[in-house]
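Following the same procedure, sequence and fold were stored together, as reproduced here:

>
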Amino acid sequence: MDEQLKLAKEKLKKFHQEQVLIKYDTMSQENKEKLVKQILSLDFEQLEELYEMAKKEVAVEEAKIEPIAYVDKEKMTKEEKEEYKKIGVESIKNGELAAVTMAGGQGTRLGHKGPKGTFDLGLDSHKSIFEILCDTLKKAKEEYGVVIPWYLMTSKENNEETIQFFESHNYFGYPKESIHFFMQGELPMLLENGHIVLKEDGTIKEAADGHGGVFESMTRNGIVEQMKENGIKWVFIGGVDNVLVKMVDPILIGLTIKKNALAAGKSVVKANPSERVGVFCKKNGKPSVIEYTEISKEMAEATDSSRRTSIWRISYFV
């Protein structure tokens, strides 16, 4: 332990975070070991980089913002839809699709105690969000004759409760072996001066790293490798909040394959130019998302060639 503590002190000194050990001498042996382990496992260079990025003001005026190319499903011909659907259905039936639901949040803002996915929306069926999402996979199983693997990204805060919920509801009738849980990553919380925040017990206070960490979490938990071994080529990723999400969409899959795209997303047109939502775009030539506060009034009111449809698309999955 002495050697580990020495290494931890050296690491903290290098990154000017010596205050992390301020409570060390009065901590329990268990928490001392936990703290040292936390320090040694932290990527301080990444932490410093994220801190510096957080301090910078978004300089959209310096970036080249353009509308991103899109395909309007409503304007597809019958032949196009049939072609894309045929390609997508073939991929689904070949077992090439998996679904990932980001479900690490709590239902606090819904007035619900527990994981957000366990919330009862108040339907006559009293189904939870998890069950409603599962119903879409069960329907696909009946339609395509294949069980689509379902991966749920939980958090340290709700992982155990989420798993217990699924077990107590018999996995909503979906094959248990096809439902997988993995936890999202966490990052230390920082003060405005960049110092790491400590909990009352002296250990480092951490918080979930958000939806943006889903890919890293999938990699770290061996999910990506598992998918490759099982022949998965396409993964639909969506948030647990979106109860109406269509996780198994053969037209989207077929379109993506046909266009030889690495990734694709579904979105809806803004309800009006001033709607306060983020939008998909190209930023300096690369696919990106910008917030409504970052584009000018003129840009927000721009329309396509038909002058009927906004060129900006809401960054909500549907």
Confidence is low (pLDDT under 50) at residues 314-318. The longest strand covers residues 97-102. The CA atoms of residues 102 and 153 lie 5 Å apart. The chain has three domains: 2-55, 59-77+267-318, 94-259.
